[in-house]
Amino acid sequence: MNSNKVLESIRKILNFSIKRGGHDRVLEKVDLISAGNGQLIAEMVVEKQHTNVLGNLHGGFTATALDILSSMAVLTHPRVVENIDSVPNRGVSVDIHVSYLNSAKIGDRIVINSETVKLGKNLAFLKVTFFRKDDNVILAQGTHTNNKVLESVRKIWNYSIKRGGHDRVLDKVDLISAGNGQLIAEMVVEKQHTNVLGTLHGGFTATAIDVLSSMAVLTHPRVVEDIDSAPNGGVSVDIHVSYLNSVKIGDRIVINSETVKLGRNLAFLEVTLFRRDDNVILARGSHTNFIK
Questions:
Q1: If pLDDT is split at 50, 70 and 90, which confidence band does 177 have?
Q2: How high is the pLDDT of residue 229?
Q3: I need a labelling partner for 62 at 20 to 30 A (CA). Which of 52, 68, 178, 264 fits?
Q4: Do 119 and 201 fall within a single domain?
Q5: ∠ CA 151-220-79 to the nearest 5 degrees?
């Protein structure tokens, strides 16, 4: 794909992100200059809307630009650029680090250079440099690690829920993070999740432990490379649940699933459910999964 086509595609993606009304809208004054080979160069003139109370470029804006523009840069990498127009997966952030070196004031034109340092199968390592165009003074430098594992798990999750089986009872569960054999999810307890006493149903808890821990094992370093190719979460050999405290409608709970050990055919998993507001543990579970 030639560089002009790549730049045009990236501009369409950024414009869509800005116009949808989310936080990306703060980049509406950023102009994309060139794109290709895992690199994206952008420019902007600092305006009042980009500044802090001191009239300098806001640190939060800088971090936002680093996040979004480096995520766009990886889409232009030769290994993935052919799919740039087919609902590209920008991934989710694992880590962002920004060093603020010099201030920028209203009227300064700055250049933002985003580069893909390394692109693995599930992780992209990116770096970004902000400098003032007039004198090439570096304003900020940052690194960004981008993870596609969570996006892949969410696709599997959505498929499981939409196919109409028992997994559909978990449709209110949000997946927060995934990787290294661990999956963290959250949900707010609603009437549909409760028993006749109005507390979280034991069967729902057991279902969540079963399904979420089976998803967690898919993110283990030994098998994560195959996560997008018809992943096999295995079948249950044993599930044990200890119910420790009750949960009522309106409580927000966190479900933390971890792979304790992954053998050749057996995965040993542990799950903890706790209330987010006070960290009270609600239930603990263990799950042994047979992996074909």
A1: confident
A2: 66
A3: 178
A4: no
A5: 50
